[in-house]
Amino acid sequence: MLAALARATGGRLRSSAAALGTRTFHLTGSTAAAEAAEAQCAATQADADFDLTEDQRQFKQVAATFAREELAPFSAEWDAKHHFPVETIKRAADLGFGGLYVGEDMGGAGLTRLDAAIVFESLSWGCVPTAAFLSIHNMVASVVDRYGTARQRSMYLPALTSAEHLASYCLTEPGSGSDAVALKMTAKREAGGGGYVLNGAKAFISGGGVSDVYLVMARTGQAGPKGISAFLVEKGTPGLSFGKPELKLGWNAQPTTAVVFDDVRVGDDSRVGQEGEGFKIAMQALDGGRINIGACSIGGAQFCLDSAREYTRSRQAFGSPVSHFQATQFRIADMATTVQASRLMVRHAAAALDARSPTATIECAMAKRFATDSCYNVTNEALQLLGGYGYLQEYPIERYMRDLRVHSILEGTNEVMRIIINRELDRLDPK
Ligand SMILES: Cc1cc2nc3c(=O)[nH]c(=O)nc-3n(C[C@H](O)[C@H](O)[C@H](O)COP(=O)(O)OP(=O)(O)OC[C@H]3O[C@@H](n4cnc5c(N)ncnc54)[C@H](O)[C@@H]3O)c2cc1C
């Protein structure tokens, strides 16, 4: 993995650094990308206390370089044009980011959840929606790796880890989001033969219409979680269609659509896991997804913190830089503390998931709840520190704020996180 990262970094990233010179990087309007990079490096010093291994420091460095050179310079344009940067995602996969915790036998990087959280945090510093889509793609790849048959693994994983094919996760339906167990989509056994017929619709699917592979939860049996199974459905299967891209507040650099199933026929070998295991698979995948979305919030908040510090040093008011006012210093201190607290929670939850700790689910829910809400608040504080300029699209803060807002809603709303936390408290301590 490290060798692959090093090879890739030595080659392509150098050439993209040259391309960077031709783009304007709107950090403070007058600040160049090089200064932003410096700010990012300085900001990473706060990580020292989590005892990253040498390997983890290297993953982080590679991801940060990619974010700085291949994501940040273009992310404003992708947001404005609603462009899904598929080619950039493929280049991220060249570095191992398409299958972070997929086994190396299938072209994955074989990393831990903690390693992945570090990578997603660094990537999202450059572009939150692109990092977040990679996190969803990785979530599906990890389901195939963990629950797939040998045939499914060899059929899907090489193309997913290289991002030659992209993957989407389809749980939410128009009538069921938080109450996912109430999903209505059906997968009925073909009369007199093998295979299933899928009917129904999924809503809000990230990557919808562009992704090549869809992990779909559908009802094969009774009401409740044990009646749900998981299927892999390929784009182009007759009866599969997509709604128009939703117009959204943020996450504009990736499409969100409905996915419609009208008598979609799939073989038995499209089912992932046993019949009735789909809900368990979907929820286990979300534990990891929640860590990643928390990590994406941290990267976005770190960017806003770095930008606000930079801006307030150069902006003058009442005869001195805004950074000299104690109110500014206190606000920045609180923002930095919040980002660091979020980072520690997310990484601790990731380590618990790696260790298959009985506290992993509660830790993932707590970390997601805390990091997504708190880091969104950090982007709002950063916007305030830039005054009127923070509100302008010429500066990146309002975009990061728009992008982070949805993290409190998806992968389970933060109200649902509180439900999980309470349920797990009772399970872990039933007295
Ligand atoms: C941009 C975007 C991308 C998305 N990508 C995907 C994707 O790729 N795949 C996918 O499957 N889904 C995706 N989603 C869907 C997302 O996971 C759901 O929107 C989310 O789970 C909430 O469901 P809902 O929108 O139906 O809200 P509802 O479930 O209708 O909730 C409405 C409100 O009620 C609250 N609420 C509900 N139940 C309770 C309760 N018991 N106690 C207290 N409060 C409660 C909720 O927290 C929320 O505030 C995406 C959503 C967005 C916006």
TrEMBL record:
Cofactor(s), names only, from the UniProt record: FAD
Domain Acyl-CoA dehydrogenase/oxidase N-terminal: 53-164
Assigned keywords, A-Z: Branched-chain amino acid catabolism, FAD, Flavoprotein, Oxidoreductase
GO cellular component: mitochondrion
Gene Ontology terms describing biological process: branched-chain amino acid catabolic process
Catalysed reactions listed for this entry: (2S)-2-methylbutanoyl-CoA + oxidized [electron-transfer flavoprotein] + H(+) = (2E)-2-methylbut-2-enoyl-CoA + reduced [electron-transfer flavoprotein]; propanoyl-CoA + oxidized [electron-transfer flavoprotein] + H(+) = acryloyl-CoA + reduced [electron-transfer flavoprotein]
Pfam family membership, one: Acyl-CoA_dh_N
Pathway(s): Amino-acid degradation; L-valine degradation
Keyword Flavoprotein: yes
InterPro entries documented for this protein: Acyl-CoA_DH_CS, Acyl-CoA_Oxase/DH_mid-dom, Acyl-CoA_Oxase/DH_mid-dom_sf, AcylCo_DH-like_C, AcylCo_DH/oxidase_C, AcylCoA_DH/ox_N, AcylCoA_DH/ox_N_sf, AcylCoA_DH/oxidase_NM_dom_sf
Domain Acyl-CoA dehydrogenase/oxidase C-terminal: 276-424
Domain Acyl-CoA oxidase/dehydrogenase middle: 169-264
GO molecular function annotations of the record: acyl-CoA dehydrogenase activity; flavin adenine dinucleotide binding
Entry annotated with the keyword Flavoprotein: yes
Family under the similarity heading: Belongs to the acyl-CoA dehydrogenase family.
Protein name (Swiss-Prot/TrEMBL): Isobutyryl-CoA dehydrogenase, mitochondrial
Species of the source: Chlorella vulgaris (Green alga)
